[in-house]
Amino acid sequence: MLIANDEIFGPVMCLMKFKTIEEAIGRANATTHGLAAGIVTNDLNIANRVSRSIRAGMIWINCYHNFDSGCPIGGYKMSGVGKDHGVEALEKYLQNKAVVTPIYHSPWL
């Protein structure tokens, strides 16, 4: 379905039935996008297993669209470039540089 494969922005929710956890993880990862995902479960072990298996930049467990300014936001795969918020967001403003110069008459050389 188009709604399950494309990255659609707006008040849209896609719910699909599944028989096994592996099937749900496979469906979630079978898309070219990976901005966010939501998991609803009463079992914390399942929530941890699924959240670590899904390739998405933000995963909410038993909630949705909650943000913290220290939590990085950004997608996987074809969903966005870089991260916003958190320390990770500073990376796009930084560039590493190496400077090498000889030190003549140094007591350590």
In terms of topology, how is this protein built?
Elements: H1 2-5, H2 21-29, E1 33-34, E2 36-39, H3 44-53, E3 58-61, E4 76-77
Parallel strand pairs: 2-3
Antiparallel strand pairs: 1-4
Residues in β-strands, percent: 5-15%
Element order: H for helix, E for strand: HHEEHEE
Q: How many angstroms does the end-to-end distance come to? A: 67 Å
Largest sheet composition: 2 strands, antiparallel
Radius of gyration: 21 Å
Shape category = elongated
Low-pLDDT parts are none
The secondary structure category is alpha+beta
The average pLDDT value, as a whole number, equals 81
**Tally the helices: what do you get?**
3
Walk across the major sheet and give the strand order: 1-4
What is the count of β-strands? 4
Helix content: 10-25%
InterPro entries: Ald_DH/histidinol_DH (IPR016161), Ald_DH_C (IPR016163), Ald_DH_N (IPR016162), Aldehyde_DH_dom (IPR015590)
GO molecular function: aldehyde dehydrogenase [NAD(P)+] activity
Domain Aldehyde dehydrogenase: 1-99
Enzyme class: oxidoreductase
